[in-house]
Every structure is written in C-alpha cells, then in structure tokens.
Amino acid sequence: MESKQRLIAKDLLAKIKSGQYRPGDLLPGEVQLTELYGTSRETVRKALRHLVDLGLIQKVRGRGSVVLNLDRYKFPISGLTSFKELNASQGLNAETKVLVLEERPSPEYFMTAELTSEPATFIRRLRIINGEPDVVDEDFILKSVVPEIPLGEAANSLYRYFEDDLGLDISYATKLVTFEKAPQHVAKLLQVASVAVVRSMVYLQDTRLFQLTTSYHRPDKFEFSDFARRQKL
Amino acid sequence: MESKQRLIAKDLLAKIKSGQYRPGDLLPGEVQLTELYGTSRETVRKALRHLVDLGLIQKVRGRGSVVLNLDRYKFPISGLTSFKELNASQGLNAETKVLVLEERPSPEYFMTAELTSEPATFIRRLRIINGEPDVVDEDFILKSVVPEIPLGEAANSLYRYFEDDLGLDISYATKLVTFEKAPQHVAKLLQVASVAVVRSMVYLQDTRLFQLTTSYHRPDKFEFSDFARRQKL
DNA sequence: CAGTGGTCTAGACCACGCC
DNA sequence: GCGTGGTCTAGACCACTGG
C-alpha cells in the first residue's frame, strides 16, 4: 500500500526528472496540488516535505516551492546509496570481485562503549571501474540480522538483496571520512600508499545495527558529496 | 514568535541532552506528549520530525520513539556548522588568523552552467588548533548578499555575524570532499604536501547563493562525519 | 491586494509490536 | 487487545512576497 503522500512525491519527482519542472521553476501552489491530486493540503505538504529532504526543492514563503539544481550532484545526495545503484545512475563501467566471504567476528575497533564484538559475515570486495581497481570494501554483516549470505549476492548489490529479498528496512547510517596510510593488502590491491577511508555503521528501521563497513578508495579518484540543511533549533 | 512544534522540539532536545532521556530509551508516546504540551497530535509529530532530522531519535512503529546515541559524533552531524560553533562543542583550543580580506571576483571553476563570476569578498583564514596550523579556509562571500564585511567579524564566526547581525537565513549547502595535492601557499602554511579539501556552496532560504568556500585540511587531522538517512521514494 | 507557504486543530482509521 | 506510530481530513488563522 503506497500512501498518497508518497505517490504525490513520486509523481512530482518524476516530473522534475523528466524536465517538466526545471531548476528555478516553481511547483504549482499547495492549494493547486490539493485539487490536482484530490487530497487535503496537509497531505500535499507531507509529500513536498519528502522532496525537501531529498534536496530537490526549497520552499520559500510567499513565493512557492522552487526546484533546485540536480546536476550538481555526481555522487549521491548524502551517501547511503549502494555501489550498484551508483553505477546505474552514473553509467560507469564497473565490475565487482569478491575476494573473501567468510564468518568472522566484527572488529573491536569499530565498537563504541556498549558495543562488543559479534558474529558476522565478513566480505572483502574489489571494485574495478573502467578497468582500474579503485575501491576495496570490507563489510561485516551481523549474523543476528542476516545469518547467511549467498556468494552470488555478494557480487551483486547487497542492498538489493537485503531490501528486496530479505525485506530488511535499512534506515540510517553514520559515516566517517578520513585520509590514511593504506593497510598492506589494500596498498597492494589499489597500488597506492595512501587511501581515502569511509567507515560506516548502518542501522535498520528498528534501530538494530546490522552492517559495519570500511571502504578504501584511491585518493585521486575519491569524491564524497553531501547535501546538508542547516539545523536550527 | 516560536512555534509550538519548535518549543516542543527544543524542550525534548534539552531533556535528551541533560540525560533525562538516554540513548536507547523511549520518549513518551505521542498521545502522552499531546497532553504534556497541550497541543494536537500532528503538532507533536512535527516536533518529533525535527528530532528525526537531527538524527537524535528514530521512530519505530508499534514501539515508540527511540533516543539514539549522541556521542558517536565528534564532528557535527552533516557539516553545515561553522568553525566557531565546532570549537565550542568540542572544547578545542583554537585560534583564527585572517590572512587576506579583499574584494575579488568569485572564481570560475566553482561555477556551474548558468553561474558566472560575481563580485565578492575574499577571505583567507588560517585555523590554528592547539598551537598547530590545521586548516586554511578560503571564502568568497557574494557582494550581492553581503556588500561589506568588517575585519573584526572575519576573525570571529562569520555565521554568527550573518545570522544574528544581518538576519540572513542560511539554509542549505552542497559539499564535496576530495584529497588533493596542496596548492603552494597552502602547503607552506600547513607544512604538508597533500590536503583534504572540502568545497561548499552555501545558499539562503530564498535559494540565493551567497558563499563559496574551499577548505584545506591537514590530512592527518581531517575527519568528516555524516549522518544519513536512506532516501526511499 | 491576492497568493504563497507555515502553523495548528480535533477528530478518524490503519498497521504494527508486544504481551 | 492495547498501545504505538503512520496516514489523512477539512477546516482555520497567520506571515510573508509579490505586484
């Protein structure tokens, strides 16, 4: 069951993507959208709220909802998108090699105060883009959430597997970007001495931690983009 | 005039910060909050929405609103916070040196398609943390928005000046993090060959672009942290 | 001034988690 | 079953922008 607010948001998104509404344009007013979709105004507003969250529009009092520039973002808006999705949206010629897939307890160094090591599936993957090794991903998927991972899925998009096949509701993540000397095995794979490192902790909708990732990137190819709204309270 | 939803959000935020509600705890139910604050439920929900946006709570259907871990973030949640605010929240011993403050057109390389060079105030500042030069900030503040910047304010927090004194409504930004060879003058100031670079475009609530920043960081000290929610539509 | 978005209300029904 | 959050409604008044 899709909610009305989601349907409206999707429809507007499609119209923005198709160029029916272009950057700088104003969307129809909220009252007008109300008539267009046959819903109450609060429902329309919730739909628009989704687009605001996506960084697609900006609401201006007394003027309207302004469509923002899309093409600024080569990379995903706030990086919770998976590697496969990235390729699709960027049209890169990419390949994934699974180097390791085994049972291994999650590392201590990832853990904060109350978290301790837990049984997990460890996956090391090499991402090859346009024929060049660019990224090494090391994932720990907690067994308490996903007991088993088929090898075939690891070569594909893990997120697709988790969400579509297992019905997991991946909800939020914390990320930390740093620049470090490459560990030996990474240095060998990527042929560089230093790497950009992205460490993530990914959580489900019910607040369960389920994935710990360390992602090593060739620094000369690395880009991390972010869309941020100023939080005032 | 503070809206009810903002007051409620602030109050809950204070209670979370003070430890009255701790990570893992559930906030009172929405109906209960309704009675507590004497408002309708939708208003309570809007307040909670703000806390969700901040990454402070996670709502779980059938269970309640769970308070999330705060202390994961040494750096601000989604980096639209200014340097001075950072210090305050992290208790660092920091100092700012204004190296340059002059009129200078905004650079071309920052511009996308329809944007061209515009008159701006250029500010170069050196950030010294615990006695060590760590960051070089280069800002272009568009004159169309802020015609003049007092030298004294540049040494302070520009954001405080813009928001409190000028009443500007800073709303959102796009950021791009990369690792690069340091430009000569930066290499000299920070005494390193490579730097972490954060480029930002900052916009006002009415969608006017007003600030372009390039921020060079010592790579060994650099950390960029992000809280991201998975965007499903 | 008319039109825009921002806030708020007092209901209602539904979907889900937990006991 | 009960309590939770998710969705939705049909009004209302306010604050701001624009011409």
How would you explain this protein's 3D organization?
Two copies of one chain form a homodimer. In chain A, strand 4 (120-129) and strand 5 (132-142) form a beta hairpin. Chain A is of the alpha+beta class and 233 residues long. A six-stranded antiparallel β-sheet of chain A has the order 3-4-5-8-7-6. Chain A has two domains: 4-67, Orthogonal Bundle (Arc Repressor Mutant, subunit A), CATH 1.10.10; 83-217, Chorismate lyase-like (Chorismate lyase). Chain A is 27% helix and 33% strand. The model of chain A is unreliable at 73-81 (pLDDT under 50). The first copy, chain A, has helices spanning 4-17, 30-37, 41-53, 83-90, 151-155, 158-165, 184-190, and strands at 57-60, 64-67, 94-103, 120-129, 132-142, 170-181, 194-204, 209-217, 224-229. Chain A contains seven helices and nine strands, in the order H-H-H-E-E-H-E-E-E-H-H-E-H-E-E-E. The structure holds a DNA duplex (19 and 19 nucleotides). Chains A, B: Keywords: DNA-binding, Transcription, Transcription regulation. Chains A, B: Pfam families: GntR (PF00392), UTRA (PF07702). Chains A, B: This is Trehalose operon repressor. Chains A, B: Residues 2-70 form the HTH gntR-type domain.
